[in-house]
Every structure is written in C-alpha cells, then in structure tokens.
Amino acid sequence: MRAYDCDVLVVGGGIVGLSTAYAITRAAPGTRVTVLEKEPGPALHQTGRNSGVIHSGIYYRPGSLKARFAVQGAAEMVKFCAEHGLPYEVTGKLIVATEQAELPRLHGLVQRGRENGIPVRELGPAQIAEHEPHVRGLGAIHVGTTGICDYGAVARELARLAADAGAAVRYGARVEAIGRRGGPQGEAVAVRTAFGEVLRARVLVNCAGLYSDAVARLAGDDPGMRIVPFRGEYWELVPERADLVRGLVYPVPDPAFPFLGVHLTRGIDGGVHLGPNAVPAMAREGYGRATVRPGELAGVLAFPGAWQLARRHWRYGADEVRRSLSKRAFTEAVRRLLPDVTVDDLIPAPAGVRAQAVLRDGTLVDDFLFAESPGMVHVLNAPSPAATASLPIGREVARRVLAGLR
For the chain, give me the number of helices (H) and strands (E)? Predict the structure, then answer.
C-alpha cells in the first residue's frame, strides 16, 4: 500500500494551476501530480473571463516578478500558441495620453519599457492616426510585443499536455478540508474533497485564485493578506461599429492603482471590448451586481485592510462606481480615446472578477506573491498579467515544489 495517493496536489484548475502541473511533469517526469478543480471544467473564472491580452510587461517595476515573468511569458505564450495551433495574434498596442498632465507619465513608461527590455516607439498625433484612425491623443507609445489569444484554449491545452504526461486533472473536486498527517514516509498533506474522499500527497500547491487566501487558512497557514474581489465590467462595440478600433488602445495608467483603466481591445474573435471598469464585488465570484454572498462579504468587511484601502482610494473608487451605474458616464470615459463612439454603440459584455491581494494596512500587493510552509506552496497574488506570465509562473512554482520533494 502506497503512503501517498500522489506526490503533488494542485488546488485550482485555472491557467496558473495547470501551468504548474505541466511544468512539474516536464521538469520531473514520473512525478505523480493531481489537479483538483471545483468547477466542471478548466479556466472558468479569472482565466476565462479576461480580455485575452498578451501583456508586454511595460507597466511593471523593473526587476519585479511581474516585469520579468510578463516579458518572458509574452514571448513564450506566442510560441506556445503557435506550436499547439491555438489562435493568437501579435497586434502591438498604443498607450495614449489625452491630457497634458499624462505626458510625463507616458515618458516614464517609455523609460520603464526600455529598462524592462521592451521595444517602444513614441508617436505624435498624426502617427496615432496612422495606427488607429479614430483614436485621438496628444501623444502615444507603440508597444510591438503585445498581442491577443484565447487563454481558455491555452488552459485546456495545458490540461491535455499535463494529462498526457501522467497528471490527473479532476473536475468537480472542491476541497473541503486540508490537514497535515504523519505517515510511514514522513509528513503528508491530506485533502478531503466534496466527494468525501481523502487524498494524501507529499506537497500541496495552492493555485486557488479568488480563494487563495481561504485555501491557505484552510491549510492552517496565515497568508498575511486577504483577497478583495473587484468586478471588471465590460461593454463591447456593436458589430457594425467594430471598425472604429483596429487593435489595442490603452490610456496612461494611474501609478497609484493597479488597474489599467478603460481600454479598447479587439479580441481574437474580432469583437471589440471596452473596459474593464473596476468596482468592489459582493462575492468572490460576483460577476453580476445582484450576486451577493453574505459570508464572503462579511469576511471582507471584517478585514482592516479593506477599510484602509477604501479610505486611501475613495475618490478613484467613486469614479469607478459612477461609471458602473451610468452607461453614459462609461461612454464618456471611452470617448476620451475614441471620440466617435456613442452610447448606442455599446452593448453589455460578460464581466470578470480580479482576485486582488490586500495587506492588513490597506496596501495593494502589486507583485506576484508566493509563500511556503512545510508541505505547502501558496500562490497568493496572481492577477493580471498572470495569464500572460503563466508559463514562467508555473516553472517558478514547480521549482519550489520539487525542492520540497528532494
């Protein structure tokens, strides 16, 4: 009788969890990996509900994990999609300043891009029109390495590749309890699923995304943060107006906040998405305004960091809420970049939820965050650009896991 059902249990079947399983099976063939996903299929939350952008890495602090992994990940994602016949396109993107006050921040992004090894080109108003005839701005930068893909398709391919290498990917397997138990070969991690079965492994990997802090606490670890969910609300252009946007167009982001602002994205299906607008969600999977889970909401409200965050960013948050409640206000935000658009050109599109880690003092965690304890590796903060960076993230988690197995 074997002491362990597998060597590694991965909790979470989004793109990060599946990339981790794939990376472990590649780095250490024969390692027994099981992925537990509570949904009936992969990538049904953050992975499958984003705009599909392959981010260049230009926004992120040089030397940070986000910068390093996004730059690596963008190139690797393009290569992965090409090698496996998945839809993608390297479109490039414009970051456009529409006010004089944004020009210094735009120039700062040029410098940051160069420090991160990303080729960027500065554009004037006439050159903006050459790329995007309907977009208006005082200046812009063109980032050639940005693209688009279908991250849901990428996740399904990672699941297939991991399974082909011997991993077990199990759906509908919600984790209900986690414990550490001694065994004939030493310490083991034991997990009980919603099916009532108990699985034992040498190492558990927490890639639970929106529930990463909850899974860490379930395992007896204090994550030192809490996931505060933000709903990203999107609209899209009606098909007959989709020709207003050729590719990807972004505003100059506010450096005090981790969201990139309302941007224009022509997706892999040819549709043009506008957004996201970012507002607090009343549930971790709160994709609609009416979705409220009292227990989850109470957990956020009881967390001191959420109140500190609200006090620090209430003006920014008020603008987001206003755009959420008013289609006209949202349209005005779009018109800063795309003046020809009207309220009638916008139709609702599915929303996403960002799993944003917040510290107890209200600080927004602005980098990928990992934590380890005996028999555990936790991925505690992996919002955008985690899909872009998923292949390097998977390798980093695999490195930590395999070090624990030695």
Answer: 10, 19
